[in-house]
Amino acid sequence: MSKEKAGTTYEGFDEAERAAMKERAKELKKSKSGKRDPEAEVFEKIAEMPESDRVLAEQIHALVRSAAPELAPRTWYGQPAYAKDGKVICFFQAAAKFGTEYATFGFNEAPLLDNGTMWPTAFGLRELTPADEELLATLVRKAAGLS
To answer: Where does the source fall among the domains of life (predicted)?
Structure first.
């Protein structure tokens, strides 16, 4: 069913969005079966990424595991994510996943980050400098309740 809005036509979810939803359904099914190694699944998904995304995903994985080892790695919509008490705190999204110009590292409703009237929820990534890594590590620790 199409809906007209501001001169555009809505045709439903695109192919990448449908694929992400299918990935999430597989993750939930595996989780219920108890037959999974979440961190191994993260490494498998990272290995499937194009080189530019893979390099960033590997850096993010190392950063999160170092900054907040309490966070549990897992996949979320087919992408690396890190959870506390079963709830995803932060995640990486490869640029290739939705054909975007840059990868994304984001936070899910992390109330420990809301400071004032504005706070970070996602960052576009092309590369990570040491200063970038320091900032993200600080935010990951804060979102995980470690600082």
So the answer is: Bacteria
- Average pLDDT estimate for 107-127: 85
**Domain residue limits, the chain:** 13-143
pLDDT at 126: 96
130: number of CA atoms within 13 Å, CB side?
0
- C-alpha distances (whole Å) from 145 to each of 56, 70, 118, 125 are 24, 10, 19, 24
Per-residue model confidence (pLDDT) at position 49 = 97
Question: Strand, coil or helix: what is 62?
Answer: helix
Please provide the size of the chain in residues. 147
**Token pair recorded at residue 14:** 């695109």
pTM assigned to the model: 0.78
Reduce the DSSP state of residue 147 to 3 states and report it: coil
Contact 76, 87 (CB under 8 A): no
Token output for 58: 């590997």
* Cβ proximity of 112 and 104 under 8 Å: no
Q: Please state which architecture CATH assigns to domain 13-143.
A: Alpha-Beta Complex (3.90)
